[in-house]
């Protein structure tokens, strides 16, 4: 059985830190600037601050917080559509909890709920299926968002809905996929990342081999990590060793749950159900292979068929959000951070979602004065 | 089940049905009192409770929990403990409570009796009387089964002075038991997480224990009932009110494995989970052991311990010293904590 305490043991942490600190120094000196490490996943961002790993490692490693929070990148259009569906008579909009406070162009789902729309928080897409079974006179719409992590569970739910012959459940899909997002990020000229800490949960689905283009095409090493302090430090040590030795590989430091091929059954379900397209995401821009719809076999479950026509405007997002999402600016270097933009009054998605980098900086009071990276 | 008695709108109309309900459910459970006639107000003999320098403490709270019954308690135990504890942490000896009920049409009277019986039982054990009350019935759907409001009256003895703005550098931060159990128990009892674990609400009246603490260590500076918002919210308020920095020791925080597991699964922090039988006490460090040993004499204080210290004056801060020698700031969440997506 997994012994959680072993992955949090202070002696194990200290052993790793003692190896990392001098190595980070050497790699940073060779570059004549701090090493830029992007942790892609919002869960990792929080784990780093929760344990104070940034304090343990010191200024030779700069953490660049990646776009790996599906709530943060959700376009305002998606929220507007969800609200419109929730406001239809007889509808129940079922959603993950942390989407409630994300601002659309005309408010949030939480505000829509307060004004009478039927919005229910569920913990699993299967809960939405249960809602539909229990209330045949209602039409349930599940707001299906997330990276490749949540997609398989939702694909299986859609398949189950068809098998059970349910006609009162539909899905509003806004799925962003990790590998195309990373590729989109690395194609930008301004990006300044020496290597990646690869996300843990997404990799269970994708498998370690899926990251090969990051190393081969873009020359960036990546080490997949778990979420405990020892996991993250071990992954960071492996990444720094690669940079120090001039290697560029995909390595797996989370092998207790991640394999090379990924979860084949999950991938098959996703391929059967989801239809890929290009979609515009907050802060990231257009990403191919996004999922906004369902394949012909499952089209009856696509909530877009019931969607009223909405005004297709552009997102009013502060320009700084995109810079933070791409690692060109730290949250506390944004002029709005902690002033106009706070968790109570978020101006952008990174402050709304609890997994967002700005929310993490605010929550953990991170405000060390670090200069942004100016390398091209 | 066919003959089950249900609350109807007639029970709230003030006629025979109302009076029968009051006699059969409330008076039988909360009585007997010296004054057997049901007057419009309870009249309390104050002379026996008041010495020179005594003060009256008064508090009120409404209880709307769902589900009504959960492991470790029900809305009735909450309605008594919550109000009694609010009085006790102000240094008051609770005397009596009022209880106002808003009932939903269609509520089985058997369920109401169960709630009222646990109120009566909890009040007896907390040594307070429920001396007056009110009942209203509203149409189905207008409330969720039963809402209860209790108001409490207590006496603060001369010389007792506990307030949120009196914390000073060097004070020890103590709690009487594991944190977050009530919040975790309610979350599981709602059943929509599909999880099960052996977590019970810590719901308990703390006035006997707090009375003993104040008798043994009158120098206690701050006492707070860490209910909604949890230990984190209470300490954050104390840091603000007293303008001090409070440092908690991560290794010392008493959190049951089950509660910790639920929190980690959902991305929530037990520091912000509700408690219903947990007092946070700030006392000069030299007297911390004395307070802890009084706590341990009571069933609610078996796992009492020091969780931190007030480290300096002059800036309101709350943080945790982690097991790794790092510091983690604690920020009060804006609203309810929302479970994360993945």
Automatic annotation (TrEMBL), chain A:
InterPro entries: Hyd_form_HypD (IPR002780), HypD_1 (IPR042243), HypD_2_sf (IPR042244). Belongs to the HypD family. It comes from Fluctibacter halophilus. PANTHER family: HYDROGENASE MATURATION FACTOR HYPD, HYDROGENASE PROTEIN ASSEMBLY PROTEIN HYPD. It comes from the Bacteria. This is Hydrogenase maturation factor. Keywords: Iron, Metal-binding. Pfam families: HypD. NCBIfam families: hypD.
Automatic annotation (TrEMBL), chain B:
Residues 39-156 form the PurM-like N-terminal domain. Gene3D superfamilies: PurM-like C-terminal domain, PurM-like, N-terminal domain. Residues 168-315 form the PurM-like C-terminal domain. It comes from the Bacteria. Belongs to the HypE family. This is Hydrogenase expression/formation protein HypE. It comes from Fluctibacter halophilus.
